[in-house]
Design goal:
Blueprint (H helix, E strand, L loop, with lengths): L3 H13 L4 E5 L2 E4 L6 H13 L8 H19 L8 H9 L3 H12 L3 H19 L4 H7 L5 H12 L3 H6 L14
Antiparallel strand pairs: 1-2
Length: 182
């Protein structure tokens, strides 16, 4: 879950199943119920799958989703120009050392956390370019790039076009946050 509408959809589905969500955060739902029966878990899984979500019960998959959620929050919602070291931020957020989470993420997704961060940053750059309110220099600073040349080079490497070409393109290829890096 990466947006308020996702949270509302999950809440609605759970309430239809007569469950009582206490909190719905990005990727984590806490229910008032202490324990769900196998039938209830199956029903929750069916309902969530029907609206494009999945119930995670495997420890590694949960960790990967925690990492994805933390990266999305950092890049898309908490990015105010204050640069933090990604490895420290992620280790703190998931409560495990970075080399361990990096290995698990790579093993499960077949891309590195660093690549995933780059893909998320480029998607955010696309969004900011589409709005047209910031210069490329301002976007570079906000996204933690050292220069316009650095952001332009990485943008072209990932998208195949320069930021200027993207900005003037009629069909702006955008991905939903949950589909990036998959």
């Amino acid at each position: 879950m990466v947006c308020d509408r996702c949270r509302m959809a999950v809440r609605s589905e759970l309430e239809q199943l007569q469950l009582h969500p206490q909190s719905i955060e990005l990727g984590i739902v806490e229910l008032r119920e202490d324990h769900l029966t196998d039938v209830q878990l199956s029903d929750v899984n069916k309902q969530l799958t029907a609206i494009g979500f999945e119930l995670l019960d495997d420890g590694k998959r949960k960790l990967v989703e925690q990492i994805r959620t933390a990266v999305i929050e950092l890049i898309h919602y908490e990015n105010d120009g204050n640069q933090v070291k990604h490895s420290e931020y992620l280790a703190h957020r998931v409560g495990r050392d970075y080399p361990a989470i990096s290995k698990i993420f790579s093993d499960e997704t077949h891309i590195t956390i660093e690549q995933y961060i780059i893909y998320q940053k480029i998607e955010k750059v696309k969004e900011l370019l589409s709005y047209g309110q910031l210069t490329l220099s301002e976007i570079a600073w906000q996204m933690g790039y050292s220069s316009v040349a650095a952001i332009s080079a990485q943008f072209k490497k990932v998208t195949g076009m320069t930021p200027s070409q993207y900005k003037s393109a009629e069909n702006k290829d955008r991905k939903t946050l949950d589909k990036i890096g998959k």
